[in-house]
Write a structure and sequence with these properties.
heterodimer, A: alpha+beta, Rossmann fold, Immunoglobulin-like, 30 strands, B: mainly alpha, 6 helices, 9% strand, elongated
């Protein structure tokens, strides 16, 4: 720290102590002499000159100063008197360090202030064109030639100018409403004068000077005076432009009067006291701008003079060149030193003011004010108080072990329908297989979910005996039966497909508003995804979104500019195929609420190609176990009333077309949905959710898996009951093919089977212990209740078409165990690539692993397994529930 | 729920405080932003969602009005850390027409008296 430049800089800064004071003294004397003869503008220029001299002084010193430092031996007696020699040696580097820190701090402050000012500009809105026009008129009178924008701000209390290259005048909203127009014009004239005078630029340069020479109170004093005089100059200009002192003075007074009580501490004092300013305006003879530094600043400057004089003397003793310059300073220093004891108390105050000097304090309290300068602002207090309030807890914090899936997997898995699978599904437990049976690869339980409606709503309490199931007309023996009457969330995941093709714009708006309202009122855990087809097909809200977000997604859709522009059934069918393919990955029944214009029945589209496509689509939907609830949007609303308002028409049919034997509802009839006659949109959507809470699952083993599409019929032995069930399935031999459409079967995964029997050939891959069943056979457990002995395995078969096609694909698998009641994750396996388990040329990967049941407390759990095929952007989620009981109780 | 409006949101709020309830189209045209109409619409819908704007939905195009008062918004803004720390610095960077050193009510009375006196004097001896 004793490098030559540090010494040089240190001495330069120290010399400025007396230089600054000297310049201020000269300036103050000059101003007092010329008080009568100088205008505000003259005083302004004089102050600017003084500040420029202050900036120039250190530069000159740097050049003039002999390089190198001083040693203790060569110190003159006076220096010893001021400080011990060792202190001098430390003082120079210390003052350089302090100066650097101070400049940094004030720079931050400057940048912060500047950013805040930019915000003021950004938060303002343009004034009405009439005001802007008036401003331009005034600008001509004030001779401000640059273009200036007039902005209205609600954040400021007084008009101000912002910007130098693109100046803008900000008018407070309160002034526009609280002041007569001519007073506002007068204030605008004042601000325009600033623009003409390039005051903004001058002010910024001034701020730089303050930042660099922050440690000298005289800098702040003169800088403050420049600001005062500048306002007075603009007062004069404003009056000259309008020729009306009174209006302008009244504007100032009125502006002050309408000020709201200030929230924070007082801000910088520009322009001196208002009383003084107005007195000066009304009586030009009134002498202006004779403010003296506050007592604190005055004492500070005197002491700095003392210190600075010591520096000068010290230096001068070694620098004959400087001797004559500082001889006056030496005399003054000696004199000041003699009175120093009397200054002790103010000196303490002074030191504080110097260190914490803040230009926010009035630099010039009214002359003769007996009050000392107010204490410096407590910056630190601000920092603590203003710590941002903690965000309100909207979501309970996740349990420590409730971690998301590992990032790489999760990123790939994010997909619109992903989380539909993570909600409770009716446990369609297959009829107990023989406990020791080996699962044959071709075993296929076809599940049919059935909703039964009586006259007054869904029928609950039916038993297996009430149902009859026909496969291609042949009655089937029911192999499984489950009744689910969930009190909780809807059991079937629902996709709302908002198909905007050919929809009238008003129908569109009304339908979206109604739907948004329904969605907003659904329970938060209701699994609903919303997708939209307009110029594009997009998923606007996912199943994990909150009800409010879903509703917002709908209301936020842009109105269709030309709704009838695009209308091609094949696009709609393609989208339905896509939805079927996605939903096939989820177990059980799914609802598809298809809000559209009327759509022809499958196979009756007057076009051979479309007919074939539509039948294929219908089959895919059935195979994917998707029930369609078509809603015709054309009749959702009535025409506009006289006031141009859209009135959703409550209680009127949305499906009048269906009554006349048409058409759209055919899609419902041939899947497992309904179309809701005689109901308005709100009622029908609410009913779909309501009805989905009660359902039955029928399971049967088909006689033949011939790969063709089979028709299904379900009958219920109840009079007048309406049976809603899918009307067909795909009898394909692929694993889990009953839930995978032909077109989308790139990756499919069988259900999850539990076992307690050890499996051979354990290998470990990360946390996921992969077992293979090559030599062993997997014995399914006859129960879903296990103990926590650690002997719990699960088995699944993964079918990836890409494997058979010999593509270089990697199948990855990850599973996690969730607490069934809370949904909290108990553990996750980490992702495992299954490359080693691929049997070349075979599309099926048999896979088994051990579940770490030993770490699970007794309770109910859900296993959620995700299989991902890297060759296709495709994944499948399977879940299975199981209970863990304590080992000793079992 | 003390959401601090963003800068652009403040601009919209300021416009609405100034002119009263308006449509998105009005706001967009007045603010004359370089961004498209849809951005303004989106922004206002977001503000509605945040509770900064009220929306009258019965008209054919929605009419928006501020849901918070100017004072409330100012207080939120002034409460921000950045604002509290840098307010003083910002104040010295702009040139306000008024001294920030508040005139006391006594001063204001004195000023009014002076102004009235001046006006009376002027009337007595017209040019």
């Amino acid at each position: 720290m004793n490098a030559a430049w540090v010494q040089q800089l240190g001495w330069t800064l120290l010399h400025f102590l007396w230089q600054g004071s000297a310049i201020a003294l000269v300036w103050a004397l000059l101003r007092a002499f010329l008080r009568r003869s100088l205008s505000a503008q003259g005083r302004y220029l004089l102050a600017c000159l003084a500040l420029s001299a202050m900036v120039a002084a250190p530069l000159v010193t740097w050049v003039v100063l002999p390089p190198g430092g001083l040693t203790g031996h060569s110190l003159p007696p006076l220096a010893h008197w001021t400080l011990p020699a060792s202190a001098w040696q430390r003082l120079v580097p210390a003052s350089v360090a302090g100066w650097v820190a101070g400049v940094a701090a004030f720079s931050i402050r400057l940048v912060g202030g500047w950013r805040l000012v930019s915000r003021l500009r950004r938060t303002a809105c343009p004034a009405e064109p009439e005001w802007q026009k008036k401003l331009e008129e005034i600008a001509i009178r004030v001779k401000a030639s640059r273009p200036v924008r007039l902005l209205v701000s609600s954040l400021i209390d007084v008009p101000m100018v912002i910007g130098w290259l693109r100046p803008a005048i900000l008018i407070p909203l309160g002034a526009l409403t609280g002041l007569p127009a001519e007073q506002v014009y007068a204030l605008v004239a004042h601000e325009l004068a600033h623009v003409r005078r390039y005051d903004y630029l001058a002010n910024i340069l001034q701020s730089f000077a303050e930042t660099l020479l922050f440690y000298h109170p005289a800098v702040w004093w003169i800088s403050g005076e420049i600001r005062n005089e500048r306002e007075l100059c603009c007062d004069d200009a404003a009056v000259a432009a309008s020729g009306d002192v009174l209006t302008y003075a009244r504007a100032l007074a009125q502006l002050e009067a309408i000020q709201p009580p200030r929230l924070g501490p007082a801000m910088a004092a520009n322009g001196g006291s208002l009383l003084h300013r107005i007195r000066r305006l009304l009586d030009p003879a009134q002498p202006g701008g004779a403010s003296l530094p506050g007592p604190g600043a005055a004492v500070a400057m005197a002491l700095l003079w003392l210190a600075g004089a010591s520096v000068a003397v010290l230096h001068a003793s070694q620098t004959p060149r400087l001797r004559h310059i500082v001889s006056a300073a030496r005399a003054l220093a000696t004199a000041t030193a003699q009175v120093a004891p009397q200054l002790t108390r103010p000196a303490v105050e002074m030191a504080r003011n110097t260190l914490l000097y803040d230009p926010l304090l009035p630099a010039n309290p009214p002359p003769h004010s007996p009050k000392p300068a107010p204490p410096p602002r407590e910056w630190h207090g601000d920092l603590t108080i203003a710590a941002p309030p903690r965000a309100k807890k909207a979501i309970p914090p996740p349990a420590p072990d409730d971690l998301p899936l590992p990032a790489p997997v999760y990123a790939k898995l994010i997909s619109p329908f992903r989380d539909l699978g993570a909600v409770p599904l009716p446990s369609a437990s297959p009829a107990d297989p023989e406990p020791a049976a080996i699962i044959p690869a071709t075993t296929q339980l076809v599940q049919v979910q059935v909703m039964v409606r009586g006259r007054n709503g869904p029928l609950a309490g039916l038993t297996q005996k009430d149902f009859q199931l026909f496969d291609n007309g042949k009655e089937q023996k029911l192999g499984a039966f489950t009744a689910a009457a969930a009190a909780g969330p809807v059991t079937a995941p629902t996709v709302i497909f908002f198909d905007r093709y050919g929809i009238g714009i008003l129908d569109d708006i009304a339908a979206r508003q109604t739907l948004a309202e329904v969605l907003r009122n659904l329970p938060a855990d209701e699994p609903v995804a919303v997708c939209v087809l307009d110029t594009d097909f997009h998923v606007v809200s996912e199943a994990i979104d909150s009800p409010a977000k879903r509703a917002k997604a709908l209301t936020d859709l842009w109105p269709l500019q030309d709704a009838s522009a695009i209308d091609h059934p094949s696009t709609q069918l393609n989208v339905l195929d896509l939805i079927a393919g996605q939903l096939a990955k989820l177990e059980g029944r799914k609802n598809l609420i298809w809000i559209a214009r009327e759509f022809a029945p499958a196979g009756e589209m007057q076009d051979a190609q479309l007919d074939a496509h539509s039948v294929r689509t219908l089959h895919a939907l059935n195979a994917a176990n998707v029930a369609i609830f078509p809603i015709d949007m054309q009749r959702v609303i009535s025409p506009l009333n006289s006031a141009g308002r859209i009135i959703p028409r409550p209680g009127t049919p949305v499906e009048t077309a269906a009554q006349s034997g048409s058409d759209f509802q055919d899609w419902a009839r041939r899947t497992a949905g309904y179309s809701g006659f005689h109901m308005d949109l709100r009622t029908v959507v609410q009913r779909i959710f309501e009805d989905s809470r009660t359902s039955y699952t029928l399971g049967f083993y088909p006689a033949a898996l011939d790969g063709s599409y089979h028709n299904l019929t379900v009958k219920v032995a109840r009079r007048g009951a309406e049976v809603l069930s899918r009307q067909g399935y795909l009898a394909s031999a692929g694993p889990a093919a009953q839930s995978v459409s032909e077109r989308e079967a790139a990756l499919s995964v069988s259900g999850i089977t539990f076992s307690t029997t050890a499996v051979h050939d354990q290998r470990s891959q990360g946390d996921l212990q992969v077992l293979t069943t090559e030599q062993g056979q997997f014995i399914p457990a006859g129960d879903d209740r296990f103990d926590n002995s650690g002997r719990l395995f699960f088995y699944t078969e993964i079918y990836a078409r890409s494997l058979a096609e010999k593509k270089n694909s990697v199948i990855a698998l990850v599973y996690r165990v969730l607490d069934k009641s809370t949904g909290a994750q108990k553990y996750t396996s980490g992702e495992a690539g299954l490359r080693e388990y691929i049997r070349f040329g075979s599309p099926v990967i048999p896979f088994a692993t051990r579940i770490r049941s030993e770490i699970l407390k007794p309770g109910s759990y859900r296993l959620e397994m995700t299989v991902h095929d890297t060759a296709a952007p495709d994944y499948v989620v399977r879940t299975a529930d199981f209970d863990i009981a304590d080992k000793h109780h079992d | 729920m003390s959401h601090v409006p963003s800068d652009a949101e403040f601009g919209i709020l300021t416009y609405l405080w100034r002119t009263g309830p308006s449509t998105v189209r009005d706001v967009h045209e007045a603010l004359a932003k370089s961004t498209g109409y849809t951005s303004t619409l989106k922004q206002m819908q977001v503000m509605h969602e945040k509770g900064l704007l009220k929306r009258e939905e019965s008209a054919r195009s929605h009419v928006y009005a501020p849901a918070i008062s100017k004072e409330e918004a100012q207080a939120r803004f002034a409460g921000e850390l950045m604002h509290r720390v840098f307010e003083g610095s910002a104040q010295s960077l702009v040139m306000g027409a008024l001294t920030a050193q508040r005139a006391s009510s006594k001063d204001l009375d004195e000023i009014r008296r002076m102004l009235d006196e001046f006006q009376a004097k002027k009337k007595r001896k017209p040019r």
